[in-house]
Recover the amino acids of this structure.
């Protein structure tokens, strides 16, 4: 029975890690004020696409609303090089439809992980497992294991970001719509490769911070539990 308890604790930890990872992506892409303007300024994106920063940020806001499911389509009129036109062409729209599917699937996965984690904890309570001591230990163990795996993966990706960026797209997309042409597709110009590198690093730091907080909380809970037992 103890092995089942430990397994449920580890499963809870893994679910929390997935929740943290998806939330980290969401936090960086949706909840970081001024992030896109800072990146666009850093890489001179407004000049590259011949747009004002205000118009570029408006398009970005509409694009993020679309990825969140708050907007139905990507037909966004704006001014490019002094000409009023649709920002996205049909190829870009088709690709972003696939990207939106990934974003929405990630949100659904987060909900599933939350349900699984809650069920695991309820089962532990039902089985009268020593939650106060077992769960913090298993969360620490699961957190360390998951973080080690993601750290190794991040280290591998950092050796050749372009190579693994391509592999990622080949795994998650069933077409070649993600291969954009900077001469005709504005999307590739507003999110150049260095932008993805910066974003991945920021997501990694956010995820590491959330994981560290959970780990420290679990250490504190174990210390508190041990202190109570020693007093008795």
């Amino acid at each position: 029975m103890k092995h089942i308890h430990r397994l449920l604790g580890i499963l809870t930890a893994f679910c929390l890690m997935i929740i943290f990872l998806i939330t980290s992506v969401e936090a960086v892409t949706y909840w970081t004020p001024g992030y896109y303007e800072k990146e666009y300024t850093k890489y001179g994106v407004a000049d590259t696409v011949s747009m004002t920063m205000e118009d570029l940020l408006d398009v970005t806001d509409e694009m993020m609303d679309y990825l969140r499911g708050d907007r139905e389509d990507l037909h966004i009129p704006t001014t490019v090089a002094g000409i009023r036109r649709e920002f996205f062409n049909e190829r870009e729209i088709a690709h972003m439809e696939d990207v939106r599917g990934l974003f929405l699937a990630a949100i659904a996965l987060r909900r599933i992980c939350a349900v699984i984690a809650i069920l695991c904890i309820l089962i532990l309570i039902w089985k009268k497992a020593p939650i106060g001591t077992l769960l913090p230990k298993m969360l620490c163990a699961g957190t360390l294991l998951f973080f080690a795996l993601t750290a190794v993966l991040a280290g591998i990706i950092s050796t050749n970001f372009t190579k693994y960026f391509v592999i990622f797209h080949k795994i998650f997309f069933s077409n070649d719509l993600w291969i954009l042409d900077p001469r005709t597709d504005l999307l590739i110009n507003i999110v150049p490769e260095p932008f993805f590198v910066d974003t991945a690093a920021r997501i990694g730091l956010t995820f590491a911070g959330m994981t560290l907080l959970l780990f420290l909380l679990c250490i504190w809970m174990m210390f508190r539990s041990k202190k109570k037992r020693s007093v008795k």
Observations:
- The chain has a mean pLDDT of 89.
